[in-house]
Amino acid sequence: MLQILSPLGRINEAVNDLTKAIQLQPSARLYRHRGTLYFISEDYATAHEDFQQSLELNKNQPIAMLYKGLTFFHRGLLKVKEAIESFKEALKQKVDFIDAYKSLGQAYRELGNFEAATESFQKALLLNQNHVQTLQLRGVMLYHHGSLQEALKNFKRCLQLEPYNEVCQYMKGLSHVAMGQFYEGIKAQTKVMLNDPLPGQKASPEYLKVKYLREYSRYLHAHLDTPLTEYNVDVDLPGSFKDHWAKNLPFLIDDYEEQPGLQPHIK
């Protein structure tokens, strides 16, 4: 029944069935399955308890150990060091575990350990150079580290493998804009804007942010020939624009006039 109910999104029913099965005959597999469902439901503390129970019944479970680490990771910075220990333990059990290397890199990045994060992402990519999630995470880390050219390489590779990856598309546009390449940046941003969510589907954070970024990019491009002392983004753009952007709200701003398009003569 679990295999039927879980994909249908009827997680509570699946959890109830697993709970009954565990009461009848507990096993490492059943605890792991239920922990995964709690994890999907973002109940990380309860998920952790189930993964711990599963590992007590069978220690050699790299996937359960990985998820145990992820339950720590998703509970905030104070738990990240415990997450790292779980990811390392998962790698002891399975030395070629790409997702564990990727998660380890992500955890080190959260702690600001750029070198250790880079090493972990590199190990994941040595196992699979086309691992999209690792390319995406490494690109984001490089962007925030100021290594824009290297970040851009990761986002471009990510999009070669997964052309509809919104995060990589958005970050590609952001990287171009940060380097002053406004034409390329706006071109990448427009592709994100075309990904309208389906009826009833929640819009991605990238989709919500991208129109603000495109308008900001156009604003900066339109002022490239203007001395820096003669324009001020805080004055020129309405307060509601910045407020909505900061709060990640849909682009619905009264009486907003779009910024001018690109001027080819401005390099």
From TrEMBL:
TPR repeats lie at residues 28-61, 98-131, 132-165. The keyword Ubl conjugation does not apply. Keywords: TPR repeat. The keyword Electron transport does not apply. It holds the Pfam family TPR_1. InterPro entries: TPR-like_helical_dom_sf, TPR_rpt. PROSITE patterns: TPR, TPR_REGION. SUPFAM superfamilies: HCP-like. It comes from Galeopterus variegatus (Malayan flying lemur). This is Tetratricopeptide repeat protein 13.
